[in-house]
Each structure stands twice: as C-alpha cells, then as structure tokens.
Amino acid sequence: MNMWTKLKSRFDKLPSQAKVAQLMLALGLSVRKNLDNEYSVFCGDILLSPSQIGRTMNIDRRVVIETVKRIANDPELLSFYSTLTPTANLGASSSRLGMGVLQIIPESPDQPGIIAGTLAIIARMNISVRQVIADDPELSEEPRATIVTEKPIPPEIVPEIRKVPGIKALVIM
User: Fold this and answer.
1) Nearest residue to 48 via CA among 68, 66, 74
2) Same domain? 100 vs 76
3) Which stretches does DSSP call E strand in the chain?
4) What 8-state DSSP symbol labels residue 38?
5) Ramachandran category for residue 58: left, alpha or beta (phi over 0 → left; psi -120 to 50 → alpha)
6) What is the CATH number of the domain that holds 140?
7) Which of 48, 74, 91, 171 is the Cys-Cys partner for 103 at CB 3.0 to 4.6 Å?
8) Is residue 66 part of a domain?
C-alpha cells in the first residue's frame, strides 16, 4: 500500500478532510501543540490559522479544525504529521543566480534509477548538486524531478542525460 493511500484511508467518507490532509502533506505542514497546548497546524515554526488554510482552499475553517482533531486523535497520523517539515524548492529561482536547473519528466515515476543515472553523469562533469526534489506521483498529476546544480548544465552532456532509461523529456531552465 502506498503512503497517500494509507493516510487517505483514515479519512474515508470525509473527502473535504482528506483534501486538507493531502495539502498539508504536499506542503510539509505539521500538526503539533501550540503555546496553549492545543493541536494546530504549523509551517515550520509558524502557526497557521484554520481560517487562513480554509480561505486558501475555499473551504470552511471548521473542516480544517476537524482535520486537525482527527490527526491529533490518531497516534499513527499524529506521529507522521507532527514530523513534517516544509522544504524550499530552489528550482524556479536558482537559474537567476547562475545555477543550473534541470527538470526530468519521467516515462513512469515508479521506474528506479532515473535520478541516480542523471546524477552520475553530472558528477562525472565535476558539477556539485545543490538540491534534488522529486514530486510524489501520488500528490502530483505530472510528477517530475528537479535537480539544482552549482553551475549550468553543459549542453554537451544533455544528449547523454536523455539516454538515461526512463526519461521522457528534459527541461533546462
């Protein structure tokens, strides 16, 4: 059973709460106790209000509150959601600083070795990798992997990267 399917099963017959839980997972929002010793949603150490989340999702804040309660009252869900952390995706910004950004669109996101094969080619060029982020296929309609490097990817290695098994397309930013 995959991760989101397992988590989603805890929200059977509660599609609105499942959407809140899925957004929290996708953004790395955690459920932890606030200063009043009540469970709340956090982005890192920043407390988010149910109203803010509800407005963002165009749902009633009470759905957010009930989702947090469901998570807080389920030891396995709480164990999972209490340790989530947000991660900055440097892909869209790094090229503005002279870094390289390569997006890989896979033929199948479940195929192993796509990122490893690409990173091996980049390493042979003695280019340092700053970040690798791969979209979870359960949370993204068009999952892709983004690789940020210390400098732009040399055009001469692009054909070699394209030959890595499982790569459908490359986007160099």
Assistant:
1) 68
2) no
3) 30-33, 39-43, 46-48, 100-106, 129-134, 145-149, 167-172
4) -
5) left
6) 3.30.70.260
7) 171
8) yes
pTM beyond cutoff 0.85: no
Q: Rounded to whole angstroms, how far apart are CA atoms 56 and 53?
A: 5
Residue with tokens 């956090």: 42
Query: Could you list the residue range(s) of the whole structural domain that residue 109 is in?
Result: 91-172
Mark whether 102 and 166 lie in a shared domain. Answer: yes
Which tokens in the block code for residue 132? 């690798």
Cα four-point dihedral sign 28, 33, 36, 40: positive
Residues 41 and 109 in one domain: no
Within a domain: 145:
yes
Pair 104, 142: CB distance under 8 Å = no
User: Considering the domain boundaries, does residue 120 fall inside one?
Assistant: yes
Most distant pair of Cα atoms in the chain: their distance: 58
Within a domain: residue 50? yes
